[in-house]
Design a protein that fits this description.
Layout: E1 4-9, E2 18-23, E3 26-33, E4 36-41, E5 55-57, E6 60-62, E7 69-71, E8 87-88, E9 90-93, E10 96-100, H1 109-115, H2 118-125
Antiparallel strand pairs: 1-10, 2-3, 3-4, 4-8, 5-6, 6-7, 9-10
Bound molecules: FE2/S2 (inorganic) cluster.
C-alpha cells in the first residue's frame, strides 16, 4: 500500500531545477524536466553516493562519485541493463507536490530497453 507524502507546492520547481526532500530518514531528489516532475532516491545504486549534486545532461544524471549515469525518468542506465536507481511516482494533488513512497517504480522491460538506446537520450534532450 502506498503512502503519499507532500514534499512541496506546485510551481515551486521551475523546469531544470531540483530539490531534496527528506522523509522518514530517506533522501529523495525531485527534478523538473521540461515541466514534468520526477523523483529518485538520492543514493547511487553503485556505492551509495548522493546523487543530488550530479550533473544533469538532458534526462541523464551523472553520479558525482564515479560518473555512472541514470535516466531520472526510469532510473535506468543508458546503453546497458545495469544498475537502476529507485524512482518514485510523483504528481500534483490539490496544488501540492506529492510523492508515493511505498511503491517504488520498477522500470518495465520496455522502459529499460528505451533507456538503453541512444535515441532515448536524444529524445530527452529535445
Ligand atoms: S557511487 Fe555512484 S557511480 Fe559510484
Amino acid at each position: 500500500m502506498s503512502r503519499e507524502v507532500v514534499v512541496g507546492v506546485a510551481g515551486e520547481l521551475a523546469p531544470g531545477q531540483r530539490k531534496l526532500a527528506f522523509i522518514d530518514g530517506r533522501s529523495i531528489v525531485l527534478f523538473n524536466l521540461d515541466g514534468t516532475l520526477h523523483a529518485i532516491d538520492n543514493a547511487c545504486p553503485h556505492n551509495g553516493s548522493a546523487l543530488a549534486s550530479g550533473q544533469l545532461e538532458g534526462c541523464l544524471l551523472r553520479c558525482p562519485a564515479h560518473g555512472l549515469r541514470f535516466d531520472v525518468r526510469t532510473g535506468c542506465m543508458p546503453g546497458t541493463a545495469g544498475l537502476k536507481v529507485t524512482t518514485f511516482p510523483v504528481g500534483i494533488v490539490d496544488s501540492k507536490v506529492v510523492v508515493s513512497l511505498d511503491e517504488p517504480h520498477a522500470p518495465t522491460q520496455a522502459e529499460a530497453r528505451d533507456a538503453a538506446t541512444n535515441q532515448e537520450m536524444e529524445r530527452c534532450k529535445a
